[in-house]
């Protein structure tokens, strides 16, 4: 069989594989798609030999990894998964209400007007929407967090009951970097009990990810109604923010009768690691730089009208105006270090299979 690997490990191919391709694997190798001139994309191509006279005896096959000269540089352990194994089936997604809707977003600040499907359905305890399209590295670029329903396939509503697992899922899909070798790898349900420190590290990492597109939007017109979208992922309490320099008097007034957002309360009640504390401290400095310079920036472009502006809005606004560059670089460094801490645990807890690579791929 000379092809990509999707017929073996893609969730949509499982029924075909088990009913019509239940054969014993004998031997084979795979190589980079770029070995063929003019091929777009970076993915593995396999040349696998199957014994059509015997059924499979196990759900793991070991395939040699070859470089462009045909030299074996490692072994890929390819797990033939069941649908129940995939990460997107880790927890039950909340059922949305039929008559409770919120504006559908295509990114942090863009409202998808005239949306005719039901992806704008939500529920009163809605916190955010996470898009978890597909279940492999190929689709990881689409994984985002929004403060209102996401119009993309694979999006689901985050509530308090699944908050922890939702952000672990987000971090697990975003932290590992895609390569040609892992492009078709599937993310799996963990096979061990996750330590609280790992869960909390994933949550803090997610809050400052560039794919966290949470926002606060005011006076959004959608289907002839006006909505105010709260940023439930704002990480600091109002009591703390009041002590900062805020160069917008309307925001100061707005805070007087408002309440802390969900994530700020979560942080105040949970123990976080030293690495996560450093990310949060660096993030605090960035937020302070934003509020103390808000009068110097064209905030309307990013639809910033409220004190609970989202990370997507704050980061984009600062970068556009060249403000807080050093602060953002320090936060990025701390954020990368936290990701480096989390990365090996993703394989340790079974979210991804580990390949043996003997040389550079």
Structural summary, described in words:
- Strand 4 and strand 5 form a beta hairpin.
- This protein has 361 residues and is α+β, with helices and mostly antiparallel strands.
- The protein has a 6-stranded mixed beta sheet. A 3-stranded antiparallel beta sheet has the order 7-6-8, with helices on one face.
- The protein folds into 3 domains: 82 residues, no CATH class; 124 residues, no CATH class; 109 residues, no CATH class.
- It is 30% helix and 16% strand.
Unreliable runs, pLDDT <50, ≥5 residues?
A: none
Measured on Cα atoms, how large is the radius of gyration? Answer: 23 Å
Mean pLDDT: 93
**Ends: how far apart?**
23 Å
Helix share, percent:
25-40%
Shape: elongated
Give the number of helices: 10
Order of helices and strands: EHHEEEEEEEHHEEHHHHHHE
Percentage beta strand: 15-25%
Task: Kindly report the oligomeric state of this protein.
Answer: single chain
Total count of domains: 3
Spatial strand arrangement across the major sheet: 1-3-2-4-5-11
Class from secondary-structure proportions: alpha+beta
- Biggest sheet descriptor: 6 strands, mixed
Q: Quick one: how many beta strands?
A: 11
Provide keyphrases for this structure.
alpha+beta; 10 helices; 3-stranded antiparallel β-sheet; 361 residues; single chain; 30% helix; 6-stranded mixed β-sheet
Compose a concise summary of this entry.
The protein is an alpha+beta fold and 361 residues long. The protein has helices at 6-9, 14-20, 163-174, 196-207, 238-241, 249-256, 262-269, 274-292, 311-321, 325-348; strands at 2-3, 24-32, 44-51, 60-66, 72-79, 128-131, 144-146, 155-158, 217-222, 225-229, 356-357. The strands form three sheets. A six-stranded mixed sheet has the order 1-3-2-4-5-11.
């Amino acid at each position: 069989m000379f092809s990509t690997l999707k017929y073996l490990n893609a969730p949509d191919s499982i029924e075909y594989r088990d009913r019509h391709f239940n054969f014993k694997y004998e031997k084979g190798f795979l190589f980079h798609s770029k070995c063929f001139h003019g091929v777009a994309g970076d993915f593995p191509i396999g040349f696998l030999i199957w014994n059509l006279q015997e059924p499979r005896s196990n759900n793991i096959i070991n395939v040699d990894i070859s470089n462009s000269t045909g030299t074996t540089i490692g072994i890929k352990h390819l797990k033939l998964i069941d649908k129940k194994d995939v990460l997107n089936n880790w927890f039950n997604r909340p059922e949305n209400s039929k008559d409770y809707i919120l504006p559908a977003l295509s990114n942090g600040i863009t409202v998808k007007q005239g949306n005719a499907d039901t992806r704008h359905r939500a529920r009163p305890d809605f916190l955010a929407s996470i898009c978890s399209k597909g279940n492999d590295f190929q689709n990881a670029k689409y994984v985002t967090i929004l403060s209102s329903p996401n119009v993309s396939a694979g999006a689901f509503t985050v509530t308090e009951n699944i908050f922890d697992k939702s952000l672990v899922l987000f971090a697990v899909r975003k932290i590992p970097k895609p390569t040609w070798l892992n492009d078709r790898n599937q993310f799996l349900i963990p096979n061990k009990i996750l330590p609280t420190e790992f869960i909390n590290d994933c949550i803090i990492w997610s809050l400052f990810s560039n794919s966290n597109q949470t926002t606060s939007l005011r006076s959004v017109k959608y289907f002839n109604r006006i909505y105010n979208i709260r940023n439930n992922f704002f990480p600091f309490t109002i009591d703390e923010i009041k002590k900062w320099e805020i160069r917008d008097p309307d925001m100061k007034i707005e805070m007087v009768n408002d309440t802390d957002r969900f994530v700020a309360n979560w942080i105040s009640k949970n123990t976080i690691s030293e690495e996560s504390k450093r990310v949060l401290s660096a993030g605090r400095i960035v937020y302070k730089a934003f509020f103390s310079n808000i009068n110097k920036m064209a905030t309307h472009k990013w639809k910033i009208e409220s004190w609970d502006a989202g990370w997507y809005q704050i980061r984009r606004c600062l970068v556009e105006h060249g403000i807080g560059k050093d602060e953002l670089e320090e936060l990025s460094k701390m954020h990368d270090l936290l990701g480096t801490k989390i990365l090996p645990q993703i394989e340790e807890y079974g979210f991804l299979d580990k390949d043996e690579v003997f040389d550079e791929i």
